[in-house]
TrEMBL record:
Gene3D superfamilies: 1.10.150.130, Intergrase catalytic core. Residues 112-296 form the Tyr recombinase domain. This is Tyrosine recombinase XerC. GO terms for molecular function: DNA binding; tyrosine-based site-specific recombinase activity. The keyword Cytoplasm applies. Keywords: Cell cycle, Cell division, Chromosome partition, Cytoplasm, DNA integration, DNA recombination, DNA-binding. It is found in: Cytoplasm.
Length: 312
């Protein structure tokens, strides 16, 4: 069934708003449009052809439809958020008098702590790549940069050689909404980067026109974020590691280790590129070892016990 002209016009208006005013990435725009079109298809089954005819009950019915399909609460919440944003925009443009999704309850999310690695597990993983091969050096660099900076995988694969300043030990990354920020990458990552530029990337780029991207595949082409996921999975599978590791795990680990080491929450927020500090606060969980260290140091009874003092 073809989408009604009114729905098409409203989606087109919103898409232009996302691209021009919100400076949203192509991936973000695509996700919004996919969520909205799914709702539109559901509405047209009920002979609704414009958002002005959508009611609160339609919104509730759509969420029930998604739950029946087996979608997770997180996916349902994202789709609801997309529809709320669209209707807020249409109200601003005078196309709607009220937002039919404003009073639709967001599904309660399951609170899951981000998974992270302990320092010894980080080192165990970093020791896996074969540093005698160009691809091994590249893989080690990927892991080092993700952990040292906390950057997203999408930010890593977009890095160019010019974005990295080895003398200062920083990289310029382009985050969500095309926002720029500098992140430190640390001495370990800098050392591996020097090896990669001399012994890894040069060999992978031999005889090819240089496009400037820092991380490349075996053909010398820019690496994709999906390829980074495959690289991580390869090491987990090949070495039968009992670790739950994804590229994003290194970002979680960076934030956890920074906060456990005493870094200010606002500083970590800036380094991660989070707009809202509430997003960063999910990382304020601490390891059991850190809890024990703080307790032993701060609690009078703990220090008395550790010093071996007794009362008789």
């Amino acid at each position: 069934m073809d989408t009604s002209p009114q729905f098409q016009a409203e989606i087109l208006m919103f898409t232009r708003y996302l691209r021009i005013e919100k400076n949203a990435s192509p991936h973000t725009v695509k996700q919004y449009v996919a969520d909205i079109r799914e709702f539109v298809a559901f509405m047209e089954q009920h002979q609704i052809t414009a958002f002005a005819a959508v009611s609160y009950l339609h919104g509730r019915s759509f969420l029930a439809h998604l739950a029946k399909k087996g979608l997770s609460r997180r996916s349902i919440a994202r789709k609801l958020s997309s529809l709320r944003s669209l209707c807020r925009f249409l109200m601003r443009e005078g196309q709607l008098e009220q937002n039919p999704f404003q009073m639709v309850s967001t599904p309660k999310m399951e609170k899951k702590l981000p998974s992270f690695l302990y320092p010894q597990e980080v080192q165990e993983f970093f020791d896996l790549p074969d540093m005698t091969t160009p691809l091994g050096i590249r893989d080690r660099l990927i892991f080092e940069l993700l952990y040292a900076s906390g950057m997203r995988v999408s930010e890593l694969v977009m890095l160019t050689i010019k974005d990295v300043n080895l003398s200062m030990g920083v990289a310029l990354v382009y985050g969500k909404g095309a926002k720029e920020r500098y992140v430190p990458i640390g001495s370990y990552a800098c050392d591996i980067l020097r090896q990669y530029l001399e012994y890894g990337r040069n060999k992978l780029m031999a005889g090819k026109e240089d496009h400037g991207r820092l991380i490349v595949n075996y053909r010398g082409e820019p690496l994709s974020d999906r390829s980074v996921r495959r690289i991580v999975d390869k090491y987990v599978d090949t070495y039968a590691l009992h670790l739950r590791v994804s590229p994003h795990t290194f970002r979680h680990t960076f934030a956890t280790h920074m906060l456990n080491g005493g870094a200010d929450l606002r500083v970590v927020q800036e380094l991660l590129g989070h707009v809202n500090i509430s997003t960063t606060q999910v990382y304020t969980h601490v390891t059991k070892e850190r809890l024990r260290d703080v307790y032993d140091t701060a609690h009078p009874r703990a220090s008395m016990r550790n010093s071996g003092s007794t009362n008789t």
